[in-house]
Amino acid sequence: MADLNNKVAIVTGGSRGIGAAISKELAKNGIKVVINYNSRSELAEKVVAEIKEIGSEAYAVQADVSNIADAEKLIKEAVNHFGGLDILVNNAGITRDKSFKKLSEEDWRTVIDVNLNSVYNTTSFALPHLLESDAGRIINISSIIGQAGGFGQTNYAAAKAGMIGYTKSLALELAKSGVTVNAIAPGFIDTEMVQAIPENIRESIVAKVPQRRFGQPNEIAKGVIYLCKDGDYITGQQLNINGGLYM
Ligand code: NAP
Question: Does residue 183 line the site of ligand 1, with CB under 6 A?
Fold first, then answer.
């Protein structure tokens, strides 16, 4: 079992939803957390304050991870602030759901940039530091939509499926180094992203979930902790946390 005390993690999109839950759970386990956000600084600072209240350390950094210069700034600031980097959680993501006929080139490119190209951006600058760690972890928050597809989600499904292929390939390349690379594929989790879905569609989604409820952000965070703490021999995998919706 890895000793997580005083390890350093970056959580992209750590200011709300799943990323905020991951950040708090990491902090509860003694990890120093860099909370990345894009636009809503007040939410990131709230998560930092909540973490400091439990006696752990956190630091917020604004960076649009779809922009490679911003991603470089994020990693540099994190390493300068906490003196190293052990865990990278690629969690930032957006949806722009539209049927393919209505999907603009911008809808396609923006979703691929934020969900997938961001992973290249952050990993590129984080990897030299992760390789120096004795517990290096890369955890990519993919989605059930990348596995099963989703109506009106060609852009998002392509990005999330891309994350899974990237996870497996990088895991192979890094296996000997001790840095593990895994994906978590959440089902439908009760965050702003899912709250934006019209109520009638939300009801029809819940009816299809074998456990008949949405997941909670903390249930994804527990998966991240499991991979960090007990995941020495787990690499290149997809951890499905979805109430049985996709098996
Ligand atoms: P959310 O509540 O909408 O939060 C998204 C987070 O990403 C926010 O912190 C946001 O920060 C940040 N973000 C967005 N664009 C960014 C950018 N360009 N650079 C940096 N940060 C950015 O989303 P969520 O539901 O927690 O989802 C988190 C991840 O899980 C996403 O990758 C999502 O695709 C995936 N996922 C979610 C579900 C679900 O049901 N909720 C299911 C499967 C997978 P700002 O507010 O500052 O912009």
Answer: no
